[in-house]
Amino acid sequence: MTEVPGPAAAPTVAEDLLLLLFQPRSGTIAGEDTLSSVLAGGVLADLALGDHVRTTRSPGGNVRVEAVEERPPSDALLRPGWDYVAEKPRSVQSVLAAIGPSLREPLLEAVVARGDVRRERRKVLGLFGTTALVDGGTPRRAELVASVRAVLVDGEEPTARVAALAGLLAGSGTLPRLDREIPWTTPVIKRAQKLERGSWGAQAAGAAVARTVTATVVNSTTHALAAWSRS
Q1: What is the number of other CB atoms lying within 10 angstroms of the CB of residue 36?
Q2: Residue 231, pLDDT score
Q3: CA angle at 212 for the pair 84 and 218, rounded to the nearest 5°
């Protein structure tokens, strides 16, 4: 008897971040210079939303992330990040630096496997083979853009997940690259800055503890990104 495969797991925040940063017109991914840290921030946001990690403060007031021992994630893309903080509480900056560099390829493979992006073989000058990234033709990216635009442009109350996506996009400095889809106006900038700071409003969907932890992670990630961009 042939087994019927179960439903695929929902995309992670980090996968959706990568898909949002994908530029269908050029086949490139925006913000490659900060991409590893942004994707790592997405992984931390996922771990926080799933109650897999909590945040604490060091004696000096810095945010630290620690694993919730009885709640390891089942997703293979999230487990290495959880394992890293399970060794001991870590600063957000340490987690970003440790897990970020290895995330781009497996996350891109996951997005390609879902069909949201395709790899297409092409020839340059009719001689040299190369691989280009092209839009996969699914509605996923358009849906994500619409959900972020509704919050930033229309002022809708965000879910914790969409707030994390928008906050990390804003913190990465790549939101202006989405100007064709999300106009980069003064009201949008102000709303984006609130999300970067973790100010999501009392009605953001999700358990209050998970929402607060996720907001703290996003805020700490954007601070780290800002510090690295100045260095």
Answers
A1: 17
A2: 62
A3: 60
